[in-house]
Amino acid sequence: MKFTHKLGAIIWKDFISEIRTKEMILSMCLFSFLVLVIFNFAFGSSANLDRKMIAGILWVAFVFSGLTGFGRSFSMERDLGTLQGLILCPISPWTIFLAKLIGVFLFTTVMEIITLFIFTILYNATVLPFIVPLGLIAFLGTMGFTAIGTLFSAISATARARNVILPILFFPISVPVIVASVKATEIILNGKSLQMVFPWLKILVAFDLIFLLVSYLTFEYILEE
Amino acid sequence: MKYAQTLLIPFQLLTFVMMLLALYTIFIYAPVEKTMGVIQKIFYIHVPTAFLAYMAFFITFIASILYLYRKDSIWDTVAHCAVETGVIFCTIVLITGSIWAKPIWNVWWTWDPRLTTTLILWFTYVAYLMLGRVVKENQRANLAAVFGIIGFINVPITFFSIRLWRTIHPVVITGSGFNMSWPMKFSLIITLIAFCFLFFSMLISKIRLERLKKCVEEIKEIMETGI
Amino acid sequence: MNPEPYIEARGLVKKFGYKTALRNVDIILAEGDSLALFGPNGAGKSTLIQVLCSLLQPTSGSVRIAGFDVRGDREALHQIVGLIGHQTFLYPHLTAHENLKFFGAMYGVARLSARISEVLDLVGLGDHRNDAVKNFSRGMQQRLSIGRAIIHNPMIMFLDEPFTGLDQQGREDFIKLILHFREQGKTVIMASHHLHLGLELCNRAAILKSGKIVYLQDTARISKNDFKQIYSQQVGENALQLKVA
C-alpha cells in the first residue's frame, strides 16, 4: 500500500514537472518527426519502400527519440541536485527506478502514438487494421528499451560525457529488443497473423522480465556512492 | 601473494613454450585442408580466441557479481583486467574471421548469429572500458560491475534473437563430433591450450600490474598527507 | 551512567578513489545531544554528515544511527532523519505547496494538508504557497528547504551550514527553530563556520581537520575564547574563516 503511494508520488511529481515545462515530450516528438523526414530523403519516395524498411524506419524513430527522453530522466535530477533528496527519502532504490521507468514509458508511448500518426501520413502506410498487434509489439518493445535506457541513464547521470556514453552503453544491449520489435512489426505490417510473431514476442517478454529482474537486483548499487 | 609471484615466472615461460609449440603446430604439423587451402589454418587462431573472448566476459560476469556481493576491490580489478584482455581477443576473432571469410565466402562480413553476437560483444567490451573512464572514481567499480552483469546476460539473448533472424556460419562442431580429421583436431587442441595459457598469462600480469599501481597510489597519498 | 549511544561512528573511513576524506573518525552521541562541527573548507564536514545520514557509504568502519546500521536498514533510518544542506532538494517547477506535498507523501506524513500549512507558516512562506520555487529568492528557497526537512518531524537533524542564504530575520527564526529542536529532544549535528552560534546552540563541539577529529569537547566545559584559541592552533592560518560575531 505504502509502496504504491510513494511510487505514485514520484510519478505525479515528474508528470507535473513535465506538463509545466513540456521539455521532454516536445523534443522527443520533434526529433522523431525529423528522423522520419530524413529517412525519406535517404531512401527515396515512399512508393518504393517495401514494408521491411518502413518497420525499421519506424523503430529507429522510436528508439533514437526515446534516447533523448530517457537520457533526461536521471540526469535532470542530478542537475537540479534533487536526486540525493530522493535517495534520502524512506524508499527503496528500485522504487525510484520503477517510478522513473513508468514515467519515461508513458511519455515515450505518447511520443510513439504521435510518431505513428505522422508516419502514416508521410509514408502513406496503412496501420489501422493492424493497430492491436502493433500496439502489443510496441508495448513490449518499448518496455524493453525504456527499461535499459532508464537504467543506463542512472548509470551515466554522473558521468562526464553523459550524452555520449549513454548511447554507447545503450545500443549493444538493446540489439535483441530492436531486432525482435522490427521483425515483428514487419511481419504484422505484411498482413500476417499474430501467430507468426509469437517467437519474437517471446524474446521480447523474456528480455523485459530478465532486465526488470536484473534492475531489481542491482539498482541500489547504481545509486550508492 | 609471494607464492603467486614465484609461480608466475615459470608460468609465463611455459606460456612462451606453448605458443612456440602452437606456431609449429599451425604452420608445420597441421595438414592443409582440401577445399579451403592454407587460409583455413587461421581457424586454429580464430576458434581458440573466440572461445577465450567469451570466457573472458564470463570471468567479468562472475567477478562483477562477487564484487557487488563482497565489495572487495580485487574482484573489480579482475573484472576490469578480464575486459581489457578480452577485448584484444575479441578484436582478433573479428579480424581473423574476416580474413578467413573473404577467400571462402567471398565476403568480408556476414550478419550471421555468431559473428554478429561477437561484434555486439566487442561493442559491449568497449562500452565497459569507456564507462570506466568517464564516471566518478568512487562509483566506477559499482557501475562497471552492474554493466558487466547486464552485458553478459545480454549475450545469449542477442545470440538467440539474431539466430532467429538468419544463419549461414559453417557448422564445424556438429552434434556428432568434429568434421575434421584427427591431425586437425589434435592441432586445434594444442592451439586451444596454448591460447588459454596466453590469455591467463596476460590476465594475471595485468591484475598484478593494477594491484601494484594501487599500492603506489596509496603510498603516495599517505606521503602527501603525512598521516 | 553512560546512556545507550544514539549516534555511533567507530573507525569511520571514507575514500573517494585514492583520496581519503575521513580518517578513522569516532563519534558517540547520546539521544538529545547536539554537536557543532567546525573545520576549514575541505576538512570533510559535509562528507561526514553525508555518511552519517547514509547518503554516502563508509569505505570502512561502522556507523549506527538510532540502532540502524547505515549499510543496511536505510529505509527505516531515512524515516527519522532530516537534512538541510547545500542543495535544497526542491523541484523548481513545482510550487511550495506541491514540493511539500511530494515530500510529505514520500515520508508518509499523516494529515498532510494540515501539516503543510503548519510548516509553511513556521518558515514564513504561508503567502507563497502557490508560487513556483524557481521564482523564489535564495533565502526563500532555504526556508522552504527547512520546511521540507522537518515535514516528517524527524528525531535527528543534520544541518550542513544551514545559515547560508538566510537574511537576518531568517537566521533569527532558524535559531529559534534549532532551540525548539533541542527542547523536543531531537539530536542535532550541525556543521558551521559560525563559532558563536555553534557553541551557543550545541552541547558538544568538535573540530575536524583533514578528515580527522582533532578536538572534541562539551561546550559547557570551555569558554568561547579558549575554543577560538584551540581552533587557531589546530587549524592554523585558516582561523580567518571562522565567523566570531
Give an overview in words.
The complex is a heterotrimer of chains A (225), B (227) and C (245). Helices cover 83% and strands 0% of the residues of chain A. Chain A contains eight helices and no strands. Chain A is globular, with a radius of gyration of 18 Å. The two termini of chain A are 29 Å apart. In chain B, 81% of the residues lie in helices and 2% in strands. The radius of gyration of chain C is 18 Å and the shape is globular. Chain C has helices at residues 45-52, 74-79, 96-106, 112-122, 138-150, 168-183, 195-201, 224-235; strands spanning 7-16, 19-29, 34-38, 60-65, 68-69, 81-84, 156-160, 187-191, 204-209, 212-218. Chain C has eight helices and ten strands. The model of chain C has no long low-confidence stretch (mean pLDDT 89). In chain C, a hairpin with a 2-residue loop joins strand 4 (60-65) and strand 5 (68-69). Chain C is an alpha/beta fold. Classes of the chains: A mainly alpha (225), B mainly alpha (227), C alpha/beta (245).
Summarize the structure.
The complex is a heterotrimer of chains A (225), B (227) and C (245). Chain A is mainly α and 225 residues long. Chain A has helices spanning 2-21, 23-43, 51-80, 83-88, 93-122, 131-156, 162-189, 198-223.
- Oligomeric status of the shown chains? heterotrimer
Question: Alpha-carbon distance between the termini of chain A?
Answer: 29 Å
Question: What is the typical, i.e. mean, pLDDT of chain A?
Answer: 90
Helix fraction bin of chain A? over 70%
Shape of chain A: globular
What do the pLDDT scores of chain C average to? Answer: 89
Number of strands of chain A: 0
Query: Ranges of chain A with pLDDT <50 over ≥5 residues?
Result: none
- The string of secondary-structure elements of chain C, in order, is EEEHEEHEHHHEHEHEEH
Shape of chain C, please?
globular
Proportion in β-strands of chain C:
15-25%
Structural class of the helices, strands and pairings of chain C? Answer: alpha/beta
Order of helices and strands of chain A: HHHHHHHH
